[in-house]
Design brief:
The protein is mainly alpha-helical. The protein folds into two domains: 20-86, Fe,Mn superoxide dismutase (SOD) domain (Helix Hairpins); 98-203, 3-Layer(bab) Sandwich (minor pseudopilin epsh fold), CATH 3.55.40.20. It has helices at 20-45, 52-57, 65-86, 98-108, 111-124, 173-176, 180-190, 193-203, and strands spanning 129-135, 141-147, 160-166. Strands 2-1-3 form a three-stranded antiparallel β-sheet. The longest helix has 26 residues, at 20-45.
C-alpha cells in the first residue's frame, strides 16, 4: 500500500511564502485523497502496489479503461504531490549544488534562466497542471508541463521528474487568489535546491 511522504516541516513551516492553511488543506486533504484512491484503484485492478513509477509508465497494460483512468489520475496525484511536498523546506537552500548546479549552468545558462523557463511553463499552463524539471535516461535535464495529474512518466517520455511545480488552484488560491505568478515566485522561495540536487545525483 502506498503512503504519503511524511513532511519534515510543520504546516506553518513554509510561511510566509506558502501559508499554513494551504499546506494543511493541500497535504492532508487533496494529497491524502489521491493516495487513498490510488490504493483503491490498484486493488480493484488487481495490481501489486510496489513501484509507482513502473505503474505509471505502463498504464497501457491496464486493459479496463475505467481502471486505467483511475490509476492515471490518482496515481499521478500521489506521485506528483509526494515530489512537490518533499522538495520544500522551512530553511531551504536557495541554489543547487554539485552535479546539478553544473548541469543547470551547462543546459540553461544559469539558475535564473531555468527559473524563467519553469515560470513560463507554469504560467502558460491552461487550467490545472504542472511544470517539471526532469532527468532524461542519458542524464540530461529537460523542462516540460502537463495537464491535470499527468507527468513525464505517465506521458511515457522516459524522463523522471526531480522538481514538480503544482499550478492547480488548490495549491495557491487561499493565499494568492488568481495571482498565479505571485505564487510561482513564492514556490521558488520555499523550494530546497539541496533536496533537488540529491535527487539528480541519485538518478544520474
Amino acid at each position: 500500500m502506498f503512503e504519503q511522504i511524511t513532511l519534515d516541516y510543520g504546516y506553518d513551516g513554509l510561511e510566509p511564502h506558502i501559508d499554513a492553511l494551504t499546506v494543511e488543506t493541500h497535504y492532508a486533504k487533496h494529497h491524502a485523497t489521491y493516495t487513498t484512491n490510488f490504493n483503491k484503484a490498484l486493488e480493484k485492478a488487481g495490481i501489486d502496489s510496489t513501484d509507482a513509477v513502473s505503474i505509471l509508465a505502463n498504464l497501457d497494460s491496464v486493459k479496463d479503461e475505467a481502471d486505467r483512468n483511475a490509476i492515471r489520475n490518482n496515481g499521478g496525484g500521489y506521485f506528483n504531490h509526494n515530489l512537490y511536498f518533499e522538495n520544500f523546506s522551512s530553511n531551504p537552500a536557495k541554489e543547487p549544488v554539485g552535479e546539478l548546479k553544473a548541469k543547470i549552468d551547462e543546459t540553461f545558462g544559469s539558475l535564473d534562466a531555468l527559473k524563467e523557463k519553469l515560470t513560463a511553463l507554469a504560467t502558460g499552463q491552461f487550467g490545472s497542471g504542472w511544470a517539471w524539471l526532469s532527468v532524461t535516461p542519458s542524464g540530461d535535464l529537460v523542462v516540460s508541463s502537463s495537464a491535470n495529474q499527468d507527468n513525464p512518466i505517465s506521458l511515457c517520455t522516459g524522463n523522471i521528474p526531480i522538481l514538480a511545480l503544482d499550478v492547480w488552484e488548490h495549491a495557491y488560491y487561499l493565499k494568492y487568489k488568481n495571482l498565479r505568478g505571485d505564487y510561482i515566485k513564492a514556490f521558488f522561495e520555499a523550494l530546497d535546491w539541496e533536496k533537488v540536487s540529491r535527487k539528480y545525483s541519485e538518478l544520474k
